[in-house]
């Protein structure tokens, strides 16, 4: 990768307690794409426990830390039939839960970060036939494929896209493995809240810093860090706080397993060792672990890697 001599960076603070002290919990670099050699510091807010990267890549660094192959892999990976079947089964369970929460078989549904429309396709196959399905996707090629599959797609960055035409339209918004990538998760949630009608349901999935793999690999190798592309890392408490603050009522908190995080965590540890680097798999199951890795409702005795939250919009704002 042609990385610049110095990556443009900016400072960052806790979303909730900007003046609270923080503790450095670890450091790491881009073990997964090797886009830049820089080491990034993970800080945990001593006030609320939110984890954030600071300093972090600035807006001008996005083209560097999201290389062209970042999105290409996403589509290629979908072709593996066994994995696809596994994921479809997991997502099928989710569709049933969304249906119970939304209780409207003609609702409009939006998948924020819809990729090539894989989840929308599952919703079309397994959800009520009356659901009207739409997506938002930043990667052009993926967005085109989603549109070709017959979904209404807006292409662009959630943080800057003009979505006024969609305001108040949706009964269900899915925001899975997206908010940790945003520079301002509060603004992202606010923008998504506007898309929902009153009483609309928002489902958020994001890596969980309280999961056991997060604890084991806390000092920098955890796959959920996805260094340096995940700017904020939540747990059920900080995620709930963000949503309640934006007028949502939390109706469900679930833990999901993300096996891809485990593979990544081990890969990252190996990739960082000159002696063991050759053992690190050169082809990873998925470059962007959370979203496509699927998940699984918590198993007895197993801790988890990601948290999934369902919330209902309390009032228009
Ligand atoms: Zn805090």
List the helices and strands and how they pair.
Layout: E1 9-10, E2 22-28, E3 40-45, E4 51-53, E5 56-57, H1 62-65, H2 68-77, H3 81-102, E6 108-112, H4 118-126, E7 132-137, H5 140-148, E8 152-155, E9 170-176, H6 185-195, E10 196-207, H7 212-216, E11 232-233, H8 236-245, E12 248-256, H9 259-271, H10 289-293, E13 306-313
Parallel strand pairs: 6-7, 6-9, 7-8, 9-10
Antiparallel strand pairs: 1-5, 2-3, 3-4, 4-11, 10-13, 12-13
Helix pairs in contact: 3-4
The structure holds zinc ion.
What percentage of amino acids are in beta strands? 15-25%
* CATH-defined superfamily: Vaccinia Virus protein VP39
Q: How does the helix and strand content classify structurally?
A: alpha/beta
Give me the CATH architecture, please.
Answer: 3-Layer(aba) Sandwich
Beta strand count: 13
What does the main sheet amount to?
A: 7 strands, mixed
Helical segment tally? 10
Q: What's the helical proportion of residues? A: 25-40%
Residue runs with pLDDT of under 50 for 5 or more positions: 285-305
Radius of gyration: 19 Å
Number of domains: 1
What is the CATH C level class, in words? Alpha Beta
Shape: globular
What is the string of SSEs from the N terminus onward? EEEEEHHHEHEHEEHEHEHEHHE
Q: Which kinds of small molecule does this entry bind, naming each only once?
A: zinc ion
CATH-defined topology:
Rossmann fold
Strand order of the largest sheet: 8-7-6-9-10-13-12
Whole-number average pLDDT? Answer: 83
Span between N and C termini?
A: 44 Å
């Amino acid at each position: 990768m042609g990385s610049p001599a110095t990556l443009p960076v900016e400072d960052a603070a806790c979303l909730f307690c900007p003046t609270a002290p923080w503790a450095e919990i670890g450091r790491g670099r881009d073990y997964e794409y090797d886009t830049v050699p820089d080491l990034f510091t993970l800080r945990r807010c001593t006030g609320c426990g939110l984890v954030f990267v600071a300093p972090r890549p600035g807006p001008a660094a996005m083209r560097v830390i999201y290389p062209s192959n970042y999105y290409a892999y996403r589509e290629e990976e979908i072709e593996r039939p066994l994995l696809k079947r596994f994921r479809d089964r997991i997502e099928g369970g989710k569709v049933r839960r969304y249906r119970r929460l939304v209780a409207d078989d003609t609702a409009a549904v939006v998948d924020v970060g819809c990729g090539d429309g894989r989840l929308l396709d599952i919703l079309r196959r397994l959800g009520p036939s009356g659901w009207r399905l739409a997506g938002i996707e930043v990667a052009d090629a993926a967005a085109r494929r989603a549109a070709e599959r017959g979904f209404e797609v807006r292409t662009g960055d959630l943080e800057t896209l003009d979505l006024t035409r969609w305001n108040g339209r949706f009964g269900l918004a899915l925001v899975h493995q997206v908010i940790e990538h945003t520079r301002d998760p509060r603004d992202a949630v606010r923008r998504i809240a506007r898309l929902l009608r009153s009483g609309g349901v928002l489902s958020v999935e994001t890596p969980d810093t309280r999961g056991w793999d997060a604890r084991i690999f806390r000092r920098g190798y955890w796959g959920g860090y996805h260094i340096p592309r995940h700017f904020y890392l939540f747990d059920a408490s900080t995620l709930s706080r963000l949503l309640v603050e934006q007028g949502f009522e939390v109706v469900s908190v679930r833990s999901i397993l993300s096996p891809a995080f485990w593979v990544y965590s081990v890969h990252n540890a190996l990739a960082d060792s000159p002696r063991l680097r050759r053992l690190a798999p050169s082809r990873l199951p998925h470059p962007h672990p959370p979203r496509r890795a699927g998940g699984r409702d918590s198993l007895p005795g197993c801790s988890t890697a990601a948290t999934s939250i369902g919330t209902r919009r309390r009032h228009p704002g």
